[in-house]
Amino acid sequence: MIRGAVSRGVTIVVPHQGWKWMKAASISVTVCHPKRNICLPANRCTKYVAPLLTSGWPLTGRSHTSGSIGNVGRRPAAHANILRTTPKTIGILPARGFASDNSDKKNVLPERTRITRPWMDRISPYARLMRIDRPIGSWLLFWPCGWSIALSAPAGYWPDPLLLGLFGVGAFIMRGAGCTINDLWDRDIDAKVERTRNRPLVSGEIAPFDALVFLSGQLGLGLLVLLQLNWYSILLGASSLGLVIVYPLMKRITYWPQLMLGATFNWGALLGWSATQGSVEWAACLPLYAAGVCWTIVYDTIYAHQDKVDDVLIGIKSTALRFGDNTKLWLTGFTATMLGNLITAGLVCDQTWPYYTSIGLIAAHLTHQIHSLNIHNPTDCATKFISNHQVGLILFLGIVFGTLYKQNSDERAKASISNNSTSGGGQLSAAVAGARNIAV
């Protein structure tokens, strides 16, 4: 057997009977391997060592032969330094170590690491602080804005793509800012919750001061987006900043932090309309806003059930704890309220059948979601929470197609009025003509 250790190398003793071309007594060679302990059968020595001895590889070791290895079949003269000593330059396993010198590769890899790894290591904690790896939050913040923009579009027109893109960027930035504020407030809490203990501020990857500087940059970018709108919208959007800052504290005070989150996340239902029309049509926007708040309570209660065990231990409040085993009943009530407000907003805006069809699909989706929910299974709660992205998309498409269909409805109504007036005028002319004939 051949045995060796990483720190001491490998000592190989090869009997002369193993190689027919060699008549020396034996050879002892020490081969160092940087990573592995080696234990090979003796009959494999020929495969790995013999080619090295004939090709001039600089193995570490001593020769116990009495002559040169290159003189096959002869008894060479004794020489004390047949093999050069080059400590720890090659290894036995894997075999590709014999095929090429890997010293260049070892020099290149650290260079690449110095170029790429520090850059990625600096960015990654801030990306995770913004939850870039979890975009569902940005979508849930964007959809009320998209609903409002599409609902305020003129009959027969698509929603303004520039405003949709602007609000999409704003939702991404402000959601990241909200996460930064939340993590700054909740550093002590997140350290005690299994799901959040690896967040960058808790693990020490980002210092609190650095997070504050980063938050300033996020809010600056958010303000830059907001300044692209009219002054009414700028003031309306700026007024929501208080909700963004205060929301993370609510879980310490009340069992209804999801209500505050709903008030914050659905501010776009008001802002989108004002960005399009220059002011808010309260009769349409308030029902839309209320529907969004109820929707947020539904999906964030489902989300909160993931952490309810840790929340009880550390004294954090949520609607998941408030509703308890009656969660499905409460969520059904909020879903019904949401649907009622959506119908009201549609009636105020003279929406058409595609809009009400989307409300029916949303009702079916949420009914199935609540009915199949397992509040004691965190994985199921997370899956149900993420599926609410589909609710926002379905309603947005319903509003868009419902608004486009308004043109056809208006044209048919005008044609019907025109036909009725033409028919009425013809009957009047016939009556006048008949009266004249009778008079004559």
From TrEMBL:
Main location: membrane
Enzyme class: transferase
Pfam families according to UniProt: UbiA
Keywords: Isoprene biosynthesis, Membrane, Mitochondrion, Mitochondrion inner membrane, Transferase, Transmembrane, Transmembrane helix, Ubiquinone biosynthesis
Membrane topology value: Multi-pass membrane protein
EC number: 2.5.1.39
One Gene Ontology MF term: 4-hydroxybenzoate polyprenyltransferase activity
Catalysed reactions, semicolon-separated: all-trans-nonaprenyl diphosphate + 4-hydroxybenzoate = 4-hydroxy-3-(all-trans-nonaprenyl)benzoate + diphosphate; an all-trans-polyprenyl diphosphate + 4-hydroxybenzoate = a 4-hydroxy-3-(all-trans-polyprenyl)benzoate + diphosphate; all-trans-decaprenyl diphosphate + 4-hydroxybenzoate = 4-hydroxy-3-(all-trans-decaprenyl)benzoate + diphosphate
UniProt key word Transferase: yes
Pathway: Cofactor biosynthesis; ubiquinone biosynthesis
Segments traversing the membrane: 136-157, 231-250, 329-348, 386-405
Family annotation (InterPro entries): HB_polyprenyltransferase-like (IPR006370), Prenyltransferase (IPR039653), UbiA_prenyltransferase (IPR000537), UbiA_prenylTrfase_CS (IPR030470), UbiA_sf (IPR044878)
GO cellular component: mitochondrial inner membrane
Entry keyword annotation includes Transmembrane: yes
Obligatory cofactor(s): Mg(2+)
GO biological process terms, semicolon-separated: isoprenoid biosynthetic process; ubiquinone biosynthetic process
Compartments it resides in: Membrane; Mitochondrion inner membrane
Cited PANTHER family: 4-HYDROXYBENZOATE POLYPRENYLTRANSFERASE, MITOCHONDRIAL (PTHR11048:SF28), PRENYLTRANSFERASES (PTHR11048)
HAMAP family, alphabetized: UbiA (MF_01635)
UniProt function note: Catalyzes the prenylation of para-hydroxybenzoate (PHB) with an all-trans polyprenyl group. Mediates the second step in the final reaction sequence of coenzyme Q (CoQ) biosynthesis, which is the condensation of the polyisoprenoid side chain with PHB, generating the first membrane-bound Q intermediate.
Protein family according to the UniProt entry: Belongs to the UbiA prenyltransferase family.
Protein name per its UniProtKB record: 4-hydroxybenzoate polyprenyltransferase, mitochondrial
